[in-house]
Design a protein that fits this description.
heterodimer; A: alpha+beta; 4 domains; eight-stranded antiparallel β-sheet; 18 helices; B: alpha+beta; Uridine Diphospho-n-acetylenolpyruvylglucosamine Reductase, domain 3; 11 helices; about 30% helix
Chain lengths: ~475, ~375
């Protein structure tokens, strides 16, 4: 039972309708994009500015309540799943773009600003914000900071951590500090870099300054079909050897193309064993020279078709074929799980062979869509809840992530550890590694009240089994995709 | 004071465990007088025995390197595979080590395009004061598992932990480079640099030095020169002949690492629009090199505590950050500007990793003050 005096303090602090205590209201915050993990919070608060965030965190400190910061709730690792008896601090009302500073090429943002809205606001000035997670229409910059989000174009342009200059942060005791600075120049240790990607366990970001880049003069894209996954993989290797850094290199296998083509009609060749979508951007003379080289490499590896969209609309159609792949597998399977592992790029063929074998052994199909340039895989484990395959699918999915670690890679390239993979962390890190991370955490938040139960394995968490996948309400409404 | 030179990770850990008291980590010594004045240490840990590449995976464009490896030597070895670490700090030419450049958050002109080593590091092995060996990150470019712990040792000046190995992301060596030089005084630098940045040419570096704005264009055999020529067509100046370009960049690097006798050197960063104002306010500034689009400048100042403190304050008033990069022997000069609100957090993080402050005492002072007890404490 909630302490009435405490609730009154939150109500007094926050503006109109800033506190949610009713069962129905609370329930809409019970999960993020990873819908198998659910927990109704004790309280949800909706501050309107940084001072109210700090005030709410101070009240949490006063009453010893754990709290979870939440942006749009599109995360895929349960990083924003509430804590029982804890407070959810929603940042959705802090959504002002405070400044588009054209001369200095930066934007100052509140954390609830949608990722895509930054580039939209900067576009008239021929500027944009580079990290482009596939959920960019509905995910927030604050969530991107928490997860160190990437996107299809991060091979060339890097991740959130490479684009955030400065942040205002509320720490677990309610104090407010600034991390980073107006330039990349740094005096003293890089606490900003530590905070980015800490999945909400070190504090709440209430203001972000990001770098804006100039819109490239030219963008050229090719969709290339290949006779085998190996041929597509070798093509990527040769592109790297040719000193070309594409803005994006995406690979799809035949199963994912079959699903995507049925859903989008993007022009994918459904019976091709593999396809690459490669994009170059930059100055026209540079891109033209490299593009010629690039298509020659594709042909050398037996590309069976090279589709070069010339109009923007055509190019967007190709990208839609890639980006819709996850949601589209719903057409060929009643249920699916999206995995997010990374292997060194040179081990792509090996990991795909192993995944195919593991799928066969488990009696489940696995579709593959991935960022081939950086080895970030998104295997889609297809299964039927009704046929009782849920447990086997979860197990296969976890085994795939752990296989990535075995091959010298990582449990997660962009979705985060959150609740979902905390129990796999000992596969990748020793007890000492994790203990040191935890010591740093205690330097920020000595009582571990800031998003507890995430990232680090705990016996309580790792003894529990997640529930079955259920579509997120936004996903059902077609607003988000599981990318 | 004892100097130890461990030759392996195990020896490094043993050295940290076996030697009680305070420890100063030493690389090539090219930044020994940067940041705060080091307190006398019981032990100096030299990284001179920790050198060489551990693993280089050319196809994955990653490399794991021991901390004490001279950066120039690393670049040379990678160059044989047509790859590089895409940073170019001036003091690499003096033998600076990889971990030394990392610990001092050093970077060069290419920071405009590639950032600093913090942007290229993807993993590390560190040794803590209690002998714990911890790894973070990994060998893949894209990786969000666990905290990005390595970052806190970037700019830590040898505090909190000892870097044993770093894993870096590599980039291909460009097939061709071209440099455009446009004559320009300090007053006109900011506007000209903005015009360069507004072209579609995408230079890798834009630096002002010796009354010229240098723009470096890197790319393919055909593309680089064609882009540089376009830049000349738009903003004027000239495309330098290869030898002249090399000489211009060498002279720039020499100015950045110049050690003018008896002077203090300050490096600072402010938003580009604030740069001219801050520079104008620094009377007696000499050896000025500026990266007008990143907002970073390096200047030599009189080694007077009041002058240096005033310069720090001026940068802080413009919202920027600054740190000392040369302290003449015996001079007591402030290493950093006014302590930010995050200094308290920094002290907590230092305490959580190195409670007795064994490593790098004094280097982050006054933000992290010396512990009350000095000398042997462990």
């Amino acid at each position: 039972m909630l302490d009435a005096a405490m609730v009154r303090e939150f109500t007094d602090l926050l503006s109109d309708n800033g506190v949610i205590t009713d069962e129905v209201g609370l329930r809409s915050y019970e999960c993020d994009g990873l819908t198998g993990f659910r927990q109704v919070p004790a309280l949800v608060v909706l501050p309107r500015d940084a001072e109210e965030v700090a005030g709410a965190v101070k009240l949490c400190a006063k009453y010893g309540m754990p709290f979870v910061a939440r942006g749009a709730g599109t995360g895929l690792s349960g990083g924003a799943m509430p804590v029982a008896d804890g407070v959810v601090i929603s940042l959705q009302r802090l959504r002002r773009i405070l400044e588009i500073d054209v001369e200095n090429r930066r934007a100052v943002l509140e954390p609830g600003v949608f990722n895509l809205d930054i580039s939209t606001a900067a576009k008239p000035h021929r500027l944009y914000y580079a990290p482009d997670p596939s959920s960019q229409q509905v995910c927030t910059i604050g969530g991107n900071v928490a997860e160190n989000s990437g996107g299809a174009h991060c091979l060339k342009y890097g991740f959130t951590t490479n684009h955030v200059l400065e942040m205002e942060v509320v720490l677990a005791d309610g104090s407010m500090i600034t991390l980073g600075g107006p330039t990349g120049e740094q005096a003293g240790p890089d606490l900003r870099g530590l905070f980015i990607g800490s999945e909400g366990t070190l504090g709440i970001c209430t203001k972000v300054t990001v770098r804006l880049l100039q819109t490239p003069e030219t963008v050229r894209t090719v969709l290339a079909d290949f006779p085998s996954i190996e041929a597509a993989g070798d093509t990527v290797g040769d592109i790297v050897d040719a000193a070309i850094i594409p803005a994006a290199v995406e690979m799809m296998d035949s199963l994912s193309m079959e699903a995507s083509e049925a859903a989008t009609g993007a022009g994918l060749t459904v019976d091709a064993p593999a396809a690459l979508i490669i994009e170059l951007d930059g100055p026209a003379d540079e891109v033209d020279a490299e593009f010629e080289h690039l298509t020659a490499i594709c042909e050398r590896h037996g590309a069976t078709r090279l589709h070069v969209p010339t109009e923007l609309e055509e190019r967007q159609k190709v990208w839609k074929g890639r980006k819709a792949a996850f949601a589209a597998v719903g057409r060929i399977s009643p249920d699916y799980i999206v995995q997010d592992g990374v292997v060194p790029r040179t081990r792509l063929a090996e990991v795909l062979t192993r995944i195919a074998e593991m799928g066969r052994d488990a009696g489940l199909r696995v579709a593959n869509v991935f960022h081939a340039g950086d080895g970030n895989l998104h295997p889609l484990v297809l299964y039927s809840e009704a046929a009782g395959e849920h447990h086997a699918a979860e197990q296969l999915s976890t085994e795939i992530a752990e296989l990535c670690v075995e091959l010298g890679g990582s449990l997660s390239g962009e979705h985060g550890i959150g609740t979902d993979k905390a129990c796999s962390m000992p596969r990748m890190f020793s007890a000492d590694d994790l203990a040191v991370m935890h010591r740093v955490r205690l330097g920020f938040d000595p009582d571990s009240r800031c998003n507890p139960g995430k990232v680090f394995p705990t016996p309580r968490l790792c003894g529990e089994k997640p529930g079955p996948y259920r579509p997120h309400p936004l996903e059902e409404a077609g607003v988000i995709e599981r990318l | 004071m004892t100097t130890l030179t461990p030759g392996s990770l195990d020896e490094l850990r043993d050295a940290v465990l076996d030697r009680p008291g305070s420890v100063r980590v030493a690389g090539a010594g090219t930044a020994a007088d940067w940041a705060g004045t080091p307190a006398p240490a019981d032990t100096v840990l030299s990284t001179a025995g920790l050198t060489g590449i551990v693993t280089h995976n050319p196809g994955d464009m990653t490399v794991e390197v021991r901390a004490g490896t001279p950066f120039a030597q690393l670049q040379e070895e990678l160059g044989e595979h047509g790859q590089r670490v895409a940073v170019d700090p001036a003091r690499a030419a003096e033998g600076a080590t990889l971990a030394g450049l990392f610990a001092t958050a050093d970077s060069g002109p290419r920071a405009l395009q590639y950032g600093s080593l913090r942007d290229l590091v993807i993993g590390a092995t560190i040794v803590l004061a209690d002998g714990t060996v911890a790894r973070s990150g990994g060998h893949v470019i894209k990786n969000v598992a666990g905290y990005d712990l390595t970052k806190i040792l970037h700019g830590a000046h040898g505090t909190m932990g000892v870097l044993a190995q770093l894993v870096l992301r590599l980039h291909p060596t460009p097939q061709a480079t071209a440099t455009v030089a446009v004559p320009c005084d300090r007053a006109g630098m900011a506007d000209l640099a903005r015009r360069v940045a507004d072209t579609p040419v995408e230079p890798t570096a834009i630096q002002w030095h010796a009354d010229r704005l240098l723009s470096l264009v890197e790319g393919s055999e055909r593309g680089a020169v064609s882009r540089a020529q376009r830049l000349v067509d738009i903003v004027g100046g000239e495309l330098l002949a290869p030898d002249d370009a090399t000489a211009a960049w060498d002279a720039h690097a020499a100015a950045v690492r110049a050690r003018p006798e008896g002077r203090a050197v300050l490096r600072f960063g402010v938003i580009p629009a604030a740069l001219p104002g801050v520079l104008d306010g620094l009377a007696d500034a000499a050896e000025v090199t500026v990266s007008p689009r990143t907002g970073v400048a390096t200047v030599a100042l009189p080694a007077d505590p009041d002058v240096v403190a005033a310069a720090h304050r001026r940068v802080a008033d413009a919202g920027g950050t600054s740190s000392l990069r040369q302290r003449p022997a015996g001079a007591e000069l402030p290493a950093f500007g006014p302590a930010p609100a995050s200094a308290a957090l920094l002290r907590h993080v230092v305490t959580s990793l190195d409670p007795d402050q064994r490593f790098g005492r004094g280097r982050l002072a006054p933000w992290v003050p010396l512990p009350e007890t000095t000398g042997v404490s462990a």
